[in-house]
């Protein structure tokens, strides 16, 4: 008989029949019942029983991260090794023994009990009748449309002293994570990417030099319409880079999109001549990802080009490392998976590959790419686990609507980001480009907004992973054409439809009227303590928008006509320029907008600080949010602009933290001084 561990909602039951003696407690039970054809599993059929052990200390992750990241902690900066982090969260040794003892006392041969490498699981194959007796349940099987047989039960019981150490047992009642969307949206080349190239000559007709620009050096006169590395250095008071400390390469995550050496060389020659021709990042291929590509290749969409160009321009002679994730069938969206980041996290932390948290173990096959990939051109190797070291700083200019991923999936992944923070890594993400909405078209809405029974496309659609409280979400800012680097920046918002019309270069993919710094409030996470006061301060003075308070499973989004979750984690945390970057893509001069620019810029700033810290014998800055919320004066507060969309005015930038530009843009000398003093 062919049995599969994949259990889907195709088998649902009606409460369970076996007796439940007093010594046992119900460990899991199906909530909903459905009338589907079902057969008892043959008593002698071998069932692969997997016992997922409860990880210890999951709920203490936040405190532990604050212990090493909060400036007032005596252990600030004392980051942990991967092994230390692993052992904190691994199941307690006695949990393993208690569950093993129970199995042995139930008549299972000790030799047949296998311990997974990371101690998260015990595995034992046993006949159905034995499993049913052990778990006080009945196993059913059902045929699935793909020809495979799935087995499961309606509920099962465990002795109380065992139950407390068990997360869940497979096969059991666990279904694949509930996808809230009926059909998984295809992730094409641009879906999931923050930043779209927009063509425009550097000086459009009708633009005249602002009066204040006349007194500036020539290379700073055009910054209001043409941001360059020199403009960024002036805006944020960045040093001319000259350090290269071993181990401080800056990481950028790329998926599908790949850079072209021709393009980055053209950029260096024209806008960052201190970076020698031929300078190229180290490329680490994750599960078959490849880079670079030829200049005219369809995968050279601009995202990788700009990430690498900005980072190298700001940190050279320090180097850049590209984590190029996923083989083509998957990264192109061909396999219809909308999973994000898990395969990358597997590659940099082997223990994550089969780590259990929030009821999920390992990648989610219904959501994540599966390797080996049998599709033509697919990666034929095994899923890569722990094959690379993560750089101290990594910038991710990708994301998707939080709503498109199940909450437990997002929680498990966010928890991993917490563990990387414990080890001293800074994980940065672009906060999105459509203001309070997600990508145009997502969630079946032209503008990328959410709907409810009573609201049609008027509910704000928060971004993931920006909503994870352990990541640093970076929003975008801009100068206006009549301004110079001496002026305060505003939140990045621009009507790109009008912009294209003005230059006659034609539209890209509408609607682009509401291109603006992504920001808002997560429906899955509440504000972490480090930002609670900042968020409260903002909300106290901003009462104009209707809101709701999301419940535990975020099933009431849009309740009471509300458009945002007033009880959510606010994002972004910080900001940097994300407008008018002129660069080459497919060897053509284009102008780019988006938080895709802001995240590598902020990551470069942290990398420069890490270099200076290394020189004085200090470790990397690690997870920076607690320090920055405690000392917001090291950032330039952005107080002008807003991010309207979804049929309302969005949020307004204002004094202090706001959900468009966070705490603001870098003031490098102040940041450096602060981090040196900690
Ligand atoms: C790159 O430019 C060449 C020449 O203009 C053009 O033929 C090709 O289609 C372009 N590639 C892409 C992906 O747009
Ligand atoms: C929601 O609004 C769109 C236009 O923005 C319209 O096409 C659609 O039919 C509306 N849906 C419902 C259920 O009213
Ligand atoms: C954006 O610009 C276009 C073209 O000028 C215009 O039709 C549209 O109304 C503008 N959108 C907004 C929201 O102002
Ligand atoms: C403030 O932002 C608005 C757009 O919201 C823009 O038109 C204006 O020029 C900005 N003012 C300053 C001083 O930056
Ligand atoms: C966009 C892209 O490169 N898609 C490729 C995905 O993989 C299939 C088969 O492996 C190719 O035919 C597609 O061209």
TrEMBL record:
It is found in: Secreted, Extracellular space. Binds 1 Ca(2+) ion per subunit. It comes from the Eukaryota. GO terms for cellular component: extracellular region. One of its GO terms (molecular function) is tripeptidyl-peptidase activity. It is an enzyme of class 3 (hydrolase). Residues 226-678 form the Peptidase S53 domain. Its cofactor is Ca(2+). This is tripeptidyl-peptidase II.
